[in-house]
TrEMBL record:
Gene that encodes the chain: Rabgef1
Ranges for region Disordered: 75-94, 482-501
Primary location group: cytoplasm
Polar residues composition bias: residue spans: 79-90
Family matches, as InterPro entries: DUF5601, VPS9, Vps9-like, VPS9_dom_sf, Znf_A20
Lineage, top ranks: Eukaryota, Metazoa, Chordata, Craniata, Vertebrata
Name of the protein in its database record: Rab5 GDP/GTP exchange factor
SUPFAM superfamilies attached to this UniProt entry: Glucocorticoid receptor-like (DNA-binding domain), VPS9 domain
Amino acid sequence: PSLSANRRKMNLKSERRGIHVDQSELLCKKGCGYYGNPAWQGFCSKCWREEYHKARQKQIQEDWELAERLQREEEEAYASSQSTQGAQSLTFSKFEEKKTNEKTRKVTTVKKFFTASSRAGAKKAEIQEAKAPSPSINRQASIETDRVSKEFIEFLRTYHKPGQDIYKQCKLFLDTMNHKRELSIEEQSECAQDFYQNVADKLQTRWKVPPEKVEKAMDQVEKYIMTRQYKYVFCPETTDDEKKDLAVQKRIRALHWVTPQMLCVPVNEEIPEVSDMVVKAITDIIEMDSKRVPRDKLACITKCSKHIFNAIKITKNEPASADDFLPTLIYIVLKGNPPRLQSNIQYITRFCNPSRLMTGEDGYYFTNLCCAVAFIEKLDAQSLNLSQEDFDRFMTGQTSPKKQESDSFSPDVCLGVKQMCKSLDLLSQLNERQERIVSEAKKLEKDLIDWTDGITKEVEDIVEKYPLEIKPKSQALAAIDSENVENDKLPPPLQPQVYAG
């Protein structure tokens, strides 16, 4: 009845307007019997919602299939690259070519897939999502970003109104930076530094926050901002940071022959505790590349430096000085060869909170690391007190300052004989060390015996010089009024007398 009444009303309105309406044109295209709407492509409201829901579910399913396919391709490419690297090392030109090909392949595949999509907004968002390295990496980054965001919000709750203001400014800054991707990295660095300064000034002047709380708030702001901006501003393609990283790594590999004695490093790695400190320092300087926040990278440098100071202190049995620290830091960098060293230094310089670089131990240790890298880049024969001929031979690998085997072996000698002689040499060194330890132990034993004999002789001489005389025990004195019959010299005791009056 309601359907027929609706149709009668539509026909009545059309007749009043003088318009002849075909009944079939007013019905829903799906054939449900209801009237359709031209704005909804001829469907009624119910059928249009069903069609829209089906189209949306279909698009979501296609997106998931694309994401899974891209993830499988990325995993296969990564597995093949790992197997290739295990067989032979890639040069810089091959690495750069491979990186470019993978990036072009992924972007081209996604563009082809989304070319026929009718939704402009969804198309743009999906293409931006497809430019990421892989869905698995995106999910991992999203998990870490969510965790940092939750921690940031929980921290700002303790600041009440200033915390709300800080959060709004951070969101506005991130939105602004997302629209400024075309800016150079130096301009983005200036924007970040200005933002740090503005937030700190507002906390101090407007909200009257104590300096120690301002420092903690700025650390959290830096962590929240740089966790989200890390993949855009760390080693960007518009800079030559990657080329500098490869140049520094190549330079350090060429200087593998440098010994601690050449750098005047006051560290004795034969001591087990010192060796452990050196290993920990190398681990910390390498771990710096795995951090995303500039403050965390500085913390790794600080931990590395403290291990260096402890190693020097144990070796010299006295506190280390700045003159001892810098050569040791240079030796640690040469021995560890940290990955992407220049990129990490540039990232800290551009986006770290300036108050940390200007003051405190973090800034001091970071400055020393920059000096160490600059020294390594300009290292020459004069810096190591070597002749230019020896330096050139060491750099080209013709000889080694540790052991020149080319002089003691002919080119025809096989590798096994060389290894055997090297092992025999090592055994002889261990034998010498063992003999030295035994001789020192015997010397210590003799010193203990001599010391015991000396003490015994001194005691005997003192006893002989001052003999101990034991006098006989004297008799105890008796009381005057006691009956002492043995002593006749004492008068008898007085007796009381009674006089009659």
